[in-house]
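Hello forum,

I keep getting stuck at the same step: I have a sequence, I want structure tokens, and every attempt I make locally crashes halfway through. Rather than fight my setup again tonight, could one of you with a working pipeline run this one for me? It's a single chain of 377 residues.
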Amino acid sequence: MAPIALEDQDHVRDAAFNKALHGKSADEKAGLRAMLKKDPVAQKAAIDEYFKHWDNKAAGVETAEVREARRAEYATLTRHYYNLATDLYEYGWGACFHFCRFAYGEGFRQAIARHEHYLAHMMGLRDGMKVLDVGCGVGGPAREIAKFSGAKIVGLNNNDYQIERALRYAAKEGLAQQLDFTKGDFMQMSFPPEVFDAVYAIEATVHAPSLEGVYSEIFRVLKPGGVFGVYEWLMTDHYDNEDPHHREVRLGIEQGDGISNMVKIPEALEAIQKAGFVLEHHEDLADREDARPWYYPLDGDLRMASSLGDIYSIARMTRIGRFVAHNFISGLEITGIAPKGTRKTANSLGVAADCLVAGGKEKLFTPMYLMIGRKPR
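Reply #2:
Ran it on my machine without issues. Output:
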């Protein structure tokens, strides 16, 4: 693979666009209320910029040049994806944008938190440590891990809107002294070398154009002896790029989740070791024999829900729930209440959901390949 040319960072430009698109919607309650507060002109610009990478570029005609164009604009692609998708994520899934394992009788929110606790446990996070969360979203995992471990956490994010929401939530929960959130590109962090005791990434570094590149940056900012833990999105060894169906599954996940270049498990293992880490543990947690599969909330089997609250939450994410929500959004868009392009984004997320389920059932994809690496002293 050719060396990655990093995108130029322009925080002033990004802040101006964030203000134009989102206005004060970061202060709104999560989900639909925030979604309806967007500027339609800026929304169209974000839609056009994101979907130029996907429209009329189906799996059957995808070329290496098309994929390389996405990798070349990795930061812009990811930033605009989350400009468009964040409110829909919070409405449908909550403030923790990741999958998890499910134990018998375990509720959705409880399982999400346990997945975060398990990573903190495997890394040995504890009170007083200075920890970096790479690709922190709206700060849901950072808040949970801070409360669980006592660590002080800095969240890194290249999307201004998500940072605003993360800061708001941290203040609301009384965690402003324990958490901070900063703007940046994880391929070229502004932190000096060797400043963090630990770094984690939860389903975030998949947005990198090169895993070796982002893992090398993480290695640089870790102190000697520091630990890096990651839940990585990867295609498994069962994935065959020559199989048209496999490519459709992979491309559907990439388009609906803002991913420029998803790779297979062996490449990730090679990347983390080339970055300099001593690999202490690696495992596909999706292969564990759990009571329910990680993809069950998207699969539509409400019999697997463990409580009435879960039925309500998960019903919104099933095919029927998504159909109802998408048509409701379409009505809001037609009447001018929601900005144009909102349904296109929701439909893209729906395609991704179906491809995620297919990838999980067919063992082509995992969202939870756990790797724990340590920087030598």
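The chain is about 45% helix and 15% strand. If your local run keeps crashing, start a new thread with the error log.
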